[in-house]
């Protein structure tokens, strides 16, 4: 963990605060690229993941923006109580949502607080001179974090704002926009789970290749009716041959942890990708939103924090 101090707290929109986190001694914090996030360790002991929302102008600072979620489990509410001068700690940046190494046009779509990883993506694309369009969907300008900054940015000509509660703006015509960029673009999307799923559904219907669809969920969507009921199974550790029982009310991670098998875990809901583990034998019952549909079908990876097994034994590459 890296100790940091809250250097500034800024209200960016209704219900959204931006924290400027600085190193304790003014030294440089670990570098990162657009799309990265950090684990924020709060005084209560909670750990939450937040996207780094701006490329650094000064290497001693990180910036995150956090929406106070009415359904908060405590994390966002605690962030909104943080004050200038408070001591916190963070992880080194992790990036499971990077820009692809391509000169192809990028289509950035943000829903609400999903703007946070998109802003540094736009900064990076503008900096290197690659083509992109940035569509930002929110209820109104008052609820849209960074809207003023984006309207006055160096890439303002690439911005498209869609405010559902503003009659002159209205909702984004997803099908039309996706159709315009089907042949030439990489799609990056972040926002509420239902918003992401709707856009990806339309992209799939239009024939977008899976490899050009990139998304980051902030929280896992509710499991649908197609998800099977939890049943017990066994998990096998490839390196030792140990076999452990996973009961219907236990996760793979919980069982591994109880038996002294270390596995790095962060979100515990299949969103962040931290616990991604290889599968040697067996068929995973995927419950995550991190892996792509193609990776789910291949069955070579699993998220032990939330996923289960369709076969009596699931052998993991641990």
From TrEMBL:
Domain of life of the organism encoding this protein: Bacteria
Keyword annotations of the record: 2Fe-2S, Flavoprotein, Iron, Iron-sulfur, Metal-binding, Oxidoreductase
FAD-binding FR-type domain segment(s): 1-100
Domain 2Fe-2S ferredoxin-type: 233-318
Sections of the chain in a coiled coil: none
Molecular-function GO term, any one: metal ion binding
Stated name of the protein: Oxidoreductase
């Amino acid at each position: 963990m890296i100790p940091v101090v809250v250097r500034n707290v800024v209200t960016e929109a209704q219900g959204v605060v931006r924290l400027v986190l600085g190193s304790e001694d003014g030294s440089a914090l670990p570098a990162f690229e657009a799309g990265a996030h950090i684990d924020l360790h709060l005084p209560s002991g909670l750990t939450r993941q937040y996207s780094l929302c701006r490329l650094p102008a000064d290497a001693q600072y990180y910036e995150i923006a956090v929406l106070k979620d009415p359904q908060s489990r405590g994390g966002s509410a605690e962030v909104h109580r943080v004050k200038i001068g408070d001591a916190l700690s963070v992880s080194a940046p992790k990036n499971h949502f990077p820009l692809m190494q391509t000169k192809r046009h990028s289509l950035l779509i943000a829903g609400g607080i999903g703007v946070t990883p998109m802003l540094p993506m736009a900064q990076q694309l503008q900096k290197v001179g690659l083509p992109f369009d940035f569509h930002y969907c929110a209820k109104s300008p008052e609820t849209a974090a960074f809207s003023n900054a984006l309207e006055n940015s160096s890439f303002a000509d690439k911005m498209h704002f869609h405010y559902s509660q503003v009659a002159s703006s209205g909702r984004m015509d997803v099908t039309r926009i996706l159709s315009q960029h089907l042949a030439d673009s990489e799609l990056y999307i972040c926002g509420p789970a239902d918003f992401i799923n709707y856009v990806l559904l339309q992209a799939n219907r239009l024939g977008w290749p899976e490899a050009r669809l990139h998304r980051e969920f902030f929280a896992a969507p509710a499991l649908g009716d197609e998800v099977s009921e939890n049943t017990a199974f066994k998990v096998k550790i490839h390196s030792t041959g140990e076999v452990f029982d996973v009961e219907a009310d236990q996760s793979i991670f919980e069982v591994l942890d109880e038996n002294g098998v270390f596995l790095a875990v962060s979100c515990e809901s299949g969103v962040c990708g931290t616990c991604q583990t290889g599968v040697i034998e067996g068929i995973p019952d995927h419950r995550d939103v991190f892996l792509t549909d193609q990776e789910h079908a291949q069955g070579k990876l699993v998220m032990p924090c939330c996923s289960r097994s369709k076969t009596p034994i699931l052998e993991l590459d641990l």
